[in-house]
Structure formats: structure tokens, C-alpha cells
Amino acid sequence: MAQVLLFHHVQGLTAGVLAFADDLRAAGHTVHAPDLFDGHTFDSVEEGFGYVQGLPDGEVARRTEAAVAGLPEALVYAGFSWGVVRAQSLAQTRPGARGALLYESCVPVTGEWAFGPWPAGVPVQVHGKLGDEFFDEDLPAARELVETLGPDLAELFTYDGDQHLFADRSLPSYDREAAALLTQRTLAFLAHVG
């Protein structure tokens, strides 16, 4: 079974993110779901970004480091949207990553925003909706990642619709059918790497 470090999206550690973590736990995996917002949740993406912008410089990085401190190296890093930056950064820079699950976002692996090269042998899945304005911006990065790593290590799953945060069952954007497929694919990935 895998150990997963799951980072929430910019609306916070919502009931939907916690429910997703529980779904993975029910399959036998250990899931760490840190709250980087100290209990704050927000009704919109815009409100969440407002909160982040109001934090002191370096605070998100400090909270991320605190979340990973003491955890084993052999982790699968996962993140929803805003949380993908934290998950992908750790997957690429912290030794021992077992895999990465990038939901609704992806950071380029080349260019000025890159965290460096993708670590050898680390598998990844990227999930997002093709009509989602936020994911559409990151789709070229997701495609580049898959092309760079090849089909043995990287998979890109796209879904119909334009909802962002479609796997969070506590939000109006929740898409039950797409979320069920995302969860199924996630569990298959974890069974493979765990």
C-alpha cells in the first residue's frame, strides 16, 4: 500500500478533499492531508487566492516544509489545482518519490517555471477537464510532461466539461461521474506504485 501526501486546493482543506482522502484510506493507503490554511476554507477560488496573497512571503513554503517534515521519503505526492505546485515540487526535488498525482494543474518541466528535471523512474498521472479555463492554461505543460516521460511513466486523463475542482464533492462544481473515474484511475495508480 502507498503513503500519499495530499495537498488541498486554494479553497482550503474542504470536506470534499477530506472525503477523497478517506476514499484512498478505505482502499488501504495511508494518506496525509495537511491543512496549509490553518482551518480556513473559502467559498470561491478568488477568495482563496486573496488569502494566499495576504500571507507573509515564504509562508506557504514554510507550511509545506512543516507538512512533510518527519514523513518518509517513499511518498506519492498528490495535489488538487493550487496544491499541485506543492505536490509536483516535492515529487521533483525531494528524494525517494514513488509517484505524483496532479489534479487539474501541471507545472512545466522545462523553462523558467520548472522545478528541474523529472526524477528518473517516477510515474505520474495528470487529470483535468478540457473545458476548464484553469486546466486549459496548464494543458501544454501536462502534454509536455507526458511526451517527455513517455507512456510507461506518464498518463494524461482528460474529462468532458468545464468544472474546476470537479472531484471535490463539497463544492457546486462536483461532477460525480468524472470524479468516480478519477478516483478509479487514482486507485489503480496507487496499487501499481504501492
From TrEMBL:
Taxon lineage: Bacteria, Bacillati, Actinomycetota, Actinomycetes, Propionibacteriales
Superkingdom of the organism of origin: Bacteria
Name of the protein this chain belongs to: Dienelactone hydrolase
Gene Ontology MF term list: hydrolase activity
Origin species: Nocardioides perillae
Residue ranges constituting the Dienelactone hydrolase domain according to the UniProt record: 4-193
Gene3D superfamilies named among the record's database cross-references: alpha/beta hydrolase
Pfam family, one: DLH
Keywords of this entry: Hydrolase
